Amino acid sequence: MEREILELICEHLKVVIYTESSYIIREGDPLDRMIFITHGTAWAYTNNNSDSVSTRRLKKCDYFGEELLEWSRTHTNITDFPIGTTNVKSHTKVEAFSLMANDLLNIVKNNYRFFRRNIPTNQQRCEISVQLENDDHDHVQSHQTSKYQRLHK
């Protein structure tokens, strides 16, 4: 993924924290965000009002909400979010980055030439998640260092 696109995405990420046993996304609600887990464990599962339940464990470097990538390519406004088909519930305390659907939509609209031809593969998405975590760590460390230097001049 081009560096400038990654930087745009990083500018819109928000750190979110979910306590143990909290719903992050509910099945049947509008899917209005992607999450990139940096610490903790969550469960993604579907009920479908049937006997079978599908469960997936989400941990550090995992993400959820990838349906928004395709949605953002085919929609021009945020009036019709896709409806979540899966519950995501924290198992432990979860720290994550959240990318809101409207921010993703604006990034895609303003850089459509890139997204028109480049939907990331699963491997690239994992690499992006790791890169986002590393970039955020570097940014925080750089910010803390410069703040320390200003205070001790």
Automatic annotation (TrEMBL):
<keyword id="KW-0406">Ion transport</keyword>
<dbReference type="InterPro" id="IPR018490">
    <property type="entry name" value="cNMP-bd_dom_sf"/>
</dbReference>
<dbReference type="InterPro" id="IPR014710">
    <property type="entry name" value="RmlC-like_jellyroll"/>
</dbReference>
<dbReference type="GO" id="GO:0034220">
    <property type="term" value="P:monoatomic ion transmembrane transport"/>
</dbReference>
<dbReference type="GO" id="GO:0016020">
    <property type="term" value="C:membrane"/>
</dbReference>
<dbReference type="Pfam" id="PF00027">
    <property type="entry name" value="cNMP_binding"/>
</dbReference>
<keyword id="KW-0407">Ion channel</keyword>
<keyword id="KW-0813">Transport</keyword>
<dbReference type="InterPro" id="IPR000595">
    <property type="entry name" value="cNMP-bd_dom"/>
</dbReference>
<keyword id="KW-1071">Ligand-gated ion channel</keyword>
<protein>
    <recommendedName>
        <fullName>Cyclic nucleotide-binding domain-containing protein</fullName>
    </recommendedName>
</protein>
<feature type="domain" description="Cyclic nucleotide-binding">
    <location>
        <begin position="1"/>
        <end position="69"/>
    </location>
</feature>
